[in-house]
Amino acid sequence: MKIAVAGKGGTGKTLVAGGLAFMLAHAGYTTIAIDADPAPNLGFMLGLSTRDAGAIVPISKNEALIAAKTGTGYPGVYSLKFTVDDVALKYAVPTPAGVHLLVMGTVVSMGAGCTCPANSVIRALLRHLIVDRDEAVVLDMEAGVEHLGRGTAEGVDLMLVVSDANRQSLTIAGTIAWMAQDAGIPRTALIGNRIADAGQEQVIREFAKAQDLAVAGVIPFDPAVVRAGIAGDSIANLAGSAALLALSGIISRIDKEVQHKPHTQDDTRKFS
Q1: CB 170 within 8 Å of CB 190
Q2: What confidence tens digit (pLDDT) does each residue in 149-183 have?
Q3: Closest Cα to residue 180, out of 152, 207, 204, 205?
Q4: Rounded to an integer, what distance in angstroms lies between the CA atom of residue 146 and that of residue 130?
Q5: Rounded Cα–Cα distance for residues 229 and 29 (Å)
Q6: pLDDT at 270
Q7: What are the beta bridge partners of residue 228?
Q8: How many other β-carbons are positioned within 10 Å of the β-carbon of residue 50?
């Protein structure tokens, strides 16, 4: 199961990504979470301390790794032929949530011809994790999917776009959904987050209907999430909360959808 999570900043996509990874791990999946946000926070959500999370060197800034993979010994010249099989084993950090975490760092124009050494390694690593390996993979993306190249996107089973009922957030969510389709991701669905009442849920569902976009589920506004954010608590401390109960229902639906309904080129964006 390979899931990418995107959305406007501040809508709670890291909560969704962390919650999905946590529940997949506790359902028995070997799970890798990939923080591809330029401002990585997924480690905190998965229970790492500020010190441990701060000690992680993003792949994009790991000069020794980049040089080992792409270096040729000639200034300005680097190799495009390298393997990344060992990177996850060496650099994925175990977390208290039972999930292994990889922090990618800033990803610039991943699928648009950028050939700098760091992005070449990141492209290869993402493709390897998504296409070649059997773990459950959850990607916490930055807003937008233009950096997700077509070759990698074809391996993602589902793009979840997170939005609250704010019109600006929904507009960005619609743009991301269409970009996901253009990138070749076979299924895209909307998650409404921080939904305070029936009126806000109606806004989410009416927008999704107008965009021909499925709704994977709705997560209510939950004071427990607010308190956890203030205290710096991990996703595990939210067990039993309204937000995680809603997310549990969403992941059960995702599991059935992804595992039991093989996708084809004709069912892009469909999520029954």
Answers
A1: no
A2: 555 666 788 999 999 999 999 999 999 998 888 87
A3: 152
A4: 17
A5: 26
A6: 52
A7: none
A8: 10
Kindly tell me if the per-residue pLDDT of 207 is higher than 70.
Answer: yes
pLDDT for position 94: 96
The CA radius of gyration of the chain, in Å to the nearest whole number, is 18
Token pair 């619609």 is at which residue?
Answer: 174
pLDDT tens-digit series, residues 113-151: 455 888 888 888 888 888 888 889 999 987 656 555 555
Q: What CATH number belongs to 2-267?
A: 3.40.50.300
For 132, half-sphere exposure in the C-beta direction (CA atoms, 13 angstrom radius) is 12
* pLDDT on residue 163: 96
Residue 74 burial class via C-beta count within 10 angstroms: exposed 0-12, middle 13-18, buried 19 and up: exposed
Q: How far apart are CA 77 and CA 227, in angstroms?
A: 50
Q: Is the pTM of this model over 0.85?
A: yes
Contact between 161 and 191 under an 8 Å Cβ cutoff? The reply is yes
Residues 6+ apart with CB under 8 A from 113: none
Report how far residue 158's alpha carbon sits from residue 190's, in angstroms, rounded to the nearest whole number.
Answer: 11
Strands (DSSP E) along the chain, which ranges?
2-7, 31-35, 93-94, 100-103, 136-140, 158-163, 188-195, 214-220
